[in-house]
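Continuing the series of single-chain predictions for the mutant panel. This is the parent chain; the variants come on the following pages.
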Amino acid sequence: MDPLQARQQMTLPEFRSLRDFIYAKSGIFFSESKQYFLENRLSKRTTDLKLRSYADYLALLQGSEGPAELKRLFVEITTNETSFWRNPPQIEAFQNIVLADAARQARERGQTRLRIWSAACSSGEEPYTLAMICQEVKDTLLRGLTVEILGTDISEKVLAQAQEGSYNSYTLRNLTPEQVQRHFTPQTKDLFQIRPEVQRLTSLRNFNLVDYAGYRQLGFFDVIFCRNVLIYFDEAVKGKVLKEFHAQLHPGGFLLVGHSESIHSFNTGFELLHFSKAMGYRKRS
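Parent structure:
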């Protein structure tokens, strides 16, 4: 038997050491029930690197090659299941209520820019969905305002896919044929390219949500989307991330989290908003 095969089993001490390292670097917490998941995600990587144990992999992460390998690690451990117009009630609440209110408040503050942040944007479907909505009302509801949508993610791999802006029909499944025709250019029978005028509204950058000092560099926002991300954090990290979101929102700004996520147990300075079949939060003025 190849001696490298022996390292396929992750020991509990190895799991705990890797789990603690990942938590310190990303805020993502794996309970002990996730040991198989972590082993499964990292086994090919350790094979490719010809490492004999997960302890050796951790040593590599902590060494001089660590920063580069950390980027690969983030690619392996993050889940990037997404689509355009995901969780329609919440997107429709943004389209029908939040956007108009955010635009009104921006004008009242004397702003000429409306800034929206899609945190953990994965391969770009969420920020481009928001850009499509804004593009359709740029000469009416958003007249006189420059729209800037920032998409960030911890994984450089999915950001590269977002930058490419090319999507298959399954990812577009929640869009109407009219929306697809309006905002995409067909490349092949099953591949569609987001149109330049939509893509221009969106900028993309690598960002780690536990880089608390880095939030200041992002500037202030009128709306923040952070959906289906907080579930990967423990209570301590969740509280810190919410505190940073609060600090980067204009007074009266909106925070939209995943439909199954709640921040009511945190004293965050947000008020709960009830939309039709959806919820959101507003920063208290």
